[in-house]
Amino acid sequence: MDLHSIQFSTPLALAMIAMLGYAIGRGRKAKQEKDVYRARCELKRAKTVARELETIAEAVRKNLATHHSSIAKFKDRVCQLSMQEKESAWQELCRESEEMLKPTLRLAAQLAHAYDEIRQQSNHLMTFSEVRMDPLTRVNNRRALDETLESMFALLNRYGQPFSLAIFDIDHFKQINDAKGHLFGDRTLKSVARTISNGVRETDVVARYGGEEFVVVMPHTDLDGACIFSDRVCVAVRDALPLTISGGVAHAIDGDNAQTLLARADSALYGAKAAGRNRVYKHTGLDIEPLAPPAPVTPPANGVVTQTT
């Protein structure tokens, strides 16, 4: 049949054009809504970083003001003592110097702590840069994760500030790729990344660790708190998508570094995989232990993963 010989009535042609315009408009609207949602999330996170930097700056200002007052008093005492020529004046000066040393050392420690906190917030600011973002999932990449862990260990080693991390892996991801293709696999990665990101706090850091693995770094969080969060993430993914994930959780301890902490979380993850997947295991520092496995679910009948950007 010659396609040029096909004729459409004017009403039918207009109806087809209207339907095509509607489909295009709807697709653009959906994309715009996703872009707006992502922008709101990023703005919310940026506000948190700004608030943290403001808090640090205010603390530094107060500490410097207090120390300035101590210096002024010390200066006055030195002037008074310099007018005396007695042996007791020298002894008094030594005592005053000892008293001045304490707040000076305290200020030095406070400034060092503020420096580390500023560096941590600087890493948060850097995650807005494309060079620290995974281009597919739009979460942090390995470079951003390494910088975050460096800052977190600096705060742990100097001030004992605790933190934990979790590694999540998509169950049977290779089967998803083989059965439905790599484009569908990419959409799956985007959906899982978005679901995890929706469940974290503003101060947490989500990063793509490689392949189908994601890492969440949780400041000021002990092992029990990280386990509760990780179990909640597994449930959220299971409820929102036609797939499951497994998780491994570890808490940073004295003597740790990024490699040993990630290795312990990875060992816990493999424990969850070996136990049947769709669950979370934790590494206590000595042993690998399970959390209560989530209840089994039936995936959605349509088997469709929602595409995210």
Search tags:
elongated; 309 residues; 7 helices; six-stranded mixed sheet; alpha+beta; 6 strands; single chain; Alpha-Beta Plaits; disordered C terminus
Question: Would you kindly provide a written description of the structure presented here, covering whatever features stand out?
Answer:
It is built from seven helices and six strands, in the order αααβααββαβαββ. It is elongated. The protein has a single domain (10-60, 120-290), classed as Alpha-Beta Plaits (2-Layer Sandwich). The chain has a six-stranded mixed beta sheet, with helices on both faces. The model is unreliable at 297-309 (pLDDT under 50). The protein is of the alpha+beta class.
Morphology call: elongated
CATH topology: Alpha-Beta Plaits
How would you name the CATH homologous superfamily? Reverse transcriptase/Diguanylate cyclase domain
CATH class: Alpha Beta
The radius of gyration computed from the alpha-carbon positions, rounded to a whole number of angstroms, is 28 Å
Spatial arrangement of strands, main beta sheet = 2-3-1-4-5-6
Structural class from helices and strands?
Answer: alpha+beta
Termini separation:
42 Å
- Proportion of residues in extended strands: 5-15%
The run of helices and strands is HHHEHHEEHEHEE
